[in-house]
Amino acid sequence: MIIKEEKLNPKLYDEDVELTPTRDGYGEGLLIAGEENNNVVVLCADLSESTRSEAFAKKFPKRFIEVGVAEQNMATVAAGLGISGKIPFISSYATFSPGRNWEQIRTTIAYNDSNVKIAGHHSGISVGPDGATHQAIEDIATMRVMANMKVFVPCDTLEAKKATVAAAKIWGPIYLRFGREKTPVITTEETPYTPGKAEIFWQSKAPQVAIIACGSILHNALLVAKELEKEKIGTIVVNNHTIKPLDEKTLLEVIKKCGAVVTVEEHQVAGGMGGAIAELLAKKYPVPMEFIGMQDVFGESGTPKELIEKYGMGVKTIKAAVIKVLKRA
Amino acid sequence: MEPLHDKKIKLLEEIANRIREKIIETLVEAGSGHSAGPLGMADVFTAFYFHILRHNPKKPDWAERDILILSNGHICPVLYVTLAYAGYFPLEELMTLRKLGSRLQGHPHRGSLPGVETTSGPLGSGLSQACGVAFSHRIDGTKNRIYCLMSDGEQNEGNTWEAVMFAGKYKLSNLTAVMDRNNIQIDGYTEHIMPLEPIKEKYESFGWHVLEIDGHNLGQIVEAVNVARAIYEKPTLIIAHTIPGKGVSFMEKDYLWHGKPPTKEEAKVALQELRTLGGKIRSEHQ
Fold first, then answer.
1. What is the pLDDT of residue A158?
2. Which of A62, A79, A210, A275 has the fewest CB atoms below 10 angstroms from its CB?
3. Is the pLDDT of residue A55 over 80?
4. In Å, how far are A55, A124, A177, A263, B265 from A297, measured between CA atoms?
């Protein structure tokens, strides 16, 4: 059942659960961060409406920098701002930033230790009709392997807001991942959120499989947990919103209780959150694992719902993975 | 900046020559590194660190200091040698260049060595970073001058032009760029590899003020920076024409000396030339 202490949205299982994109939370978080600290500046590469940085631009025009469609410049200008005492947030689609400007981020932000926050929008396949060129499904992998880089993947708009506000307060380069599509509001304002601390959202009486998810796809994991409960299969569902640094303590505690793992992310199954957890388990507590995500293919145009189903991140597929991993446990 | 009189010019010339000698000694000890660029830019670096820059070697984090960013980070031997002579760290430490545990990394790393303002090496990012620093001071209303030294080869990089456009759009007049126009890059001469001309007109069309000088004439270097300081509506680019490998006859104008250090034997000859100003005087080393 849902963990009461997490104070999740009581309507999260309802047909008419509130739907809001995580990018909205980023926009709101920027406003709060900008209020709390004058040094917060926001850069955008010609996507201010789409990345929801418009509101910041209106409120703090002197601290908003439009660089045009130039993501490499956006990262390196931000690097210069970051070493001068500013707290820059750079915003674009994740395929372009940190896609196109990966090396600049590596050299002038991570290795340079410049206090820059990178907001990668339109992540995952639920970007939808724009198609594969705009669907970032490798960004968790490419960012987590970079030294001196943290990786935050909030599960809904409220968590996105909290993550953005928190990122402004933590020193150092941070990658934040947001989605385009309206997704279920899973949490409430009171839901605990601390970067680096995984949260257990669901725990059955006799859990057999740990379902570890990040991002808005966590909602599907919670739907699966409820269905499996009816079939007497117990699970623990973890909101693993911080891919780096990984909350090894909580994850290992959960996995030791279960003995099998299914990871769920809107990302390639290679190298992302699943990869990070596999590395942890192989070293410290190997158990059977199944990986839900993109199976080493590119996406395509479609509605977010269709794409999630077709590419194997729907409720049915996650459920099947749980049953499959149980057979090996 | 105090006015530049003849006595000071003579002093600066001596310093530049010492810097050239030390570059050779440093490279030979390191066994790897770049020769042509550092020798070519010794006069520009001397002018900056011994006359132009508002800075305090004993207080490398002084908030009011001018900021010098070396975008073509591979020529860091001249940066490191100049910083040492200016008093940022002991001269002896130059012998640790590129060695394990050294503060003198193969390409500049922020935080490793006092006086290094930012990390560079991968070409094309320095000007953007300098734009960010300039923009930050604009927001704060502070009067620091920001200088970005670039190579001509790195004008090949798209990121450079994004920065050029950006500085033009935002009229970053507190930013002055200096381009080392030595006409060489790794694979050959710039106009054979990826022609840059007409580079002056290119920058002007992007909203910059452009000056051209002899990069070995200390008076011209200082004068150009003074002119840049007086331009309030645009960033300024100073195209400094230099001879790669300047001061060492067998290195001058040869692109093969871009990326390698001299051997011990070659260094002996190079130092002899530098110490005797090309055979014009006797050196105590003779």
1. 98
2. A62
3. yes
4. 36, 13, 20, 18, 57
Q: Residue B248 is encoded by which pair of tokens?
A: 């060492």
Instruction: Tell me the two tokens of residue B118.
Output: 């930012």
pLDDT score of B280 more than 90? no
Phi-psi region of A131 (alpha: psi -120 to 50; beta: other; left: phi over 0): left
Helix (H, G, I), strand (E, B) or coil at A29: helix
> Which token pair is B283?
């050196």
Among A73, A75, A85, beta carbon nearest to B136: A85
How does strand B146-151 pair with strand B175-181? parallel
Question: Are residues A80 and B133, on separate chains, in Cβ contact within 8 Å?
Answer: yes
Structure tokens at A44: 């955008």
Q: Which residue has the tokens 């060595």?
A: B113
Catalytic residues of A: 71
Percent of chain B with pLDDT over 90: 95
CB atoms A86 and B137 under 8 Å? no
pLDDT of residue B278: 83
What ipTM does this complex have? Answer: 0.96
What pTM was estimated for this model as a whole?
Answer: 0.96
Please report where in the chains the tokens 């409406």 appear, as a residue: A49
Q: Which residue has the tokens 């994991």?
A: A221
- Region of A174 (left: φ > 0; alpha: ψ -120 to 50; beta: rest) is beta
